[in-house]
Amino acid sequence: MRHLNGFERAGLALLLVLTLLTGCAPRENTSQSTRENREITDMAGRQVTVPVQIDSVFPTGPNSAIYLYTLAPDRLLGWNYPLNDQEKSILPEQYHTLPVYGMGDAVSYEAVIAAAPSLVLNTGTINDKLISDCDKLSRQLGIPVVAVDGDLMASPQAYRFLGELLGAQEQGELLAGYAERTLQDIAGLNIPEEERVRVYYGNGEDSLETAPAGSSHAQIIELAGAANAAELELGDGARIRISPEQLLAWDPDVILTVGEPTSNMSGSSAAEALRSDPVFASLSAVQAGRVYGVPNAPFGWVDRPPGPNRIIGLRWLSGLLYPDRLNFDVDEEVRQFFHLFYHVQLTNQQLEQLYSGAL
Fold this sequence. Notes:
six-stranded mixed sheet, globular, disordered N terminus
């Protein structure tokens, strides 16, 4: 048997080292992939592969952002628009400077991809369009997209689903339980048809944009046992522009005004503008002093957006319309909601400012 020369011995040593390194290196295999990901069924019935560990979530719109903030604020990748003064007056300061990614056609998807969220949350009406949008967005981003039912009646199920998804079951159950009790309390008012108050809901600086009956933006009016004065069937999600003459013709019992959050105009300011406008002086609601500004902080209590922020609006509105039928204290419920959902303890002064529109 011949002896190896120096070059051959060196080559053999290198081969042994490479063999050892290859044997010790971690191997990607199916079992490891299974441990890192899991299959879920979202609220649209879609099978989605998501990471086991979810560190951050991009919300496609404000409804999704509010669900994330209320349930697991540390997972919220960013907002869809810059927060206004009313929102900043309530939300803790550390959430004021989260990145803004846009919404709708203005989303900066390049920035979203660069931020590499664990998944995307899309909240809305469960239908074929939402399913198609989720599938398309997932292909475009290369990130799993999960659908959540945005109907207010589905908010308990949504919080339980998201709690399981994000590993925040305890908080999810607390929020789901509160939402469930709220819906039960309001349903228990049992307002007879002949006693239902006719309500007009006005959007914008002049309060002449409204959400007709059947719109998701006006859902809270009907749930609170009132009748929507805008008795027009224009489909879910619709808002319409009306004339002053149309509002005079409807002559509602109560008028709710939300103002214009994008220009920091409060609901109370819009209510004062409508009350002082001689064009509307003959309205029954104006003459009876039943024109009310909707609290907007940190998010609209009736709409703007039509997300879980409406849960407390349902209690507030029921107390406004039917105070003698309540089996709960509105002030205490507002304090509890803000503690559970918005992670803040309201002072008495803040509570008064919320109602008056000073926040």
